[in-house]
Write a structure and sequence with these properties.
25% helix; binds adenosine-5'-triphosphate
Length: 424
Amino acid sequence: SSLPSSGPSTKFELERETELRLEVEGTGPVRVELVSGLAEVFGTELTRNKKYLFPPGSRAAIFTWHGCTVQLWGSPDVAYVSRDTPMLLYLNTHVGLEQMRIQAEREGERGPRVLVAGPSDVGKSTLCRLLLNYAVRRGRRPTLVELDVGQGSVSVPGTVGALCVERPADVEEGFSAQAPLVYHFGSTTPGTNIKLYNKLTSRLAHVFNLRCDANRRASVSGCLINTCGWVKGSGYQALIHAASAFEVDVVLVLDQERLYNDLLRDLPHFVRTLLLPKSGGASERSKECRREARDQRVREYFYGPRGSLYPHAFEVKFSEVKVYKVGAPSIPDSCLPLGMSQEDNQLKLVPVTPGRDMAHHLLSVVPLDCGGTEEGIEERSVAGFIVITGVDSERQTLTVLSPAPRPLPKCVLLIMDIRFMDLK
Ligand code: ATP
């Protein structure tokens, strides 16, 4: 390929417990190779003499416990070695969780359920990834519960989900999501429909409990729950709700002492709440950067992480689809029918008539059972996603982009606020 792997390169000698931090933006991809010693990226060990690709938009740290030499090709926007990392504290946290798993194993109990909270860009997802990697490297099978509807790592934005982690994350692609459990939320912030958000959280907890009942290893391994950076008002209440729905044992708060104190006050006393520092490498991302990351997730869903998948494009008639939006727009309280609350409205399935407005929207495909009932559709898991790439009002057809060939299964489509421009 035309990627930089010959050409000029820079060598970094890393001392023990230091990391090489990279930010790759507009300057094209960067390649990294571990030449000697041992190193890891967010808990995944690097293979020596293998070249790893970091495309524009990536941020990463190559950390070493014992010292190593790393070679780098390309010109990242930022590349520096830091000695000041919280990794020892994160490792101690892992050791603590592992002790809880050993005890759970011994006493026939369940392992640690851990909620990770904090404002945006403090490294919550990264800490989850690290702790999951360390657990799976010790032979555990922890579950990643993704409650971040904006920058999630289980499925596309606008969803919540869970994934059983069976091997360390791929350095370039993250955790492989072969059969994730995914629920439709519909937008990138929980605030658009907090009732639905909390309901889906409870649903995930319920399904996780069932899995733990059936699978001892999953139960002992526990879970890591990644949350949104929205920690005020209803966002805070949603954290409390998640902690109670999952009956968490441990809460890790990154960076924010105020949030830590609030949680310490409001959670039951048996929940171990810990404040951990953020890594200096977890730097703020702009709105643009976040939008680009979301787009990238959707693109990856359809085209594969390396552009290795070929989605299908086909037409469907307006009359062939049933599209709903979850949640009616709020109306003045005085206009609500008697006995109905604003909150009931948030779970209502509102039919959407196909038309021009639908163009570029992302939709969740929720299969119907043989009975064809639509009851509780908003709580059912999603089979996949499509994007409406074109609308022909005259011919009454939609053109869709889909990972599977036509026809669409017997399903209901739930429309998201999220749009995706298919420019490929
Ligand atoms: P959000 O609130 O958006 O979910 P977050 O709190 O989950 O954010 P992360 O996504 O984990 O934060 O981290 C923010 C960015 O910083 C990511 O791009 C991540 O790869 C990067 N990052 C985290 N830790 C480091 C580090 N030690 N060195 C370099 N980059 C890092």
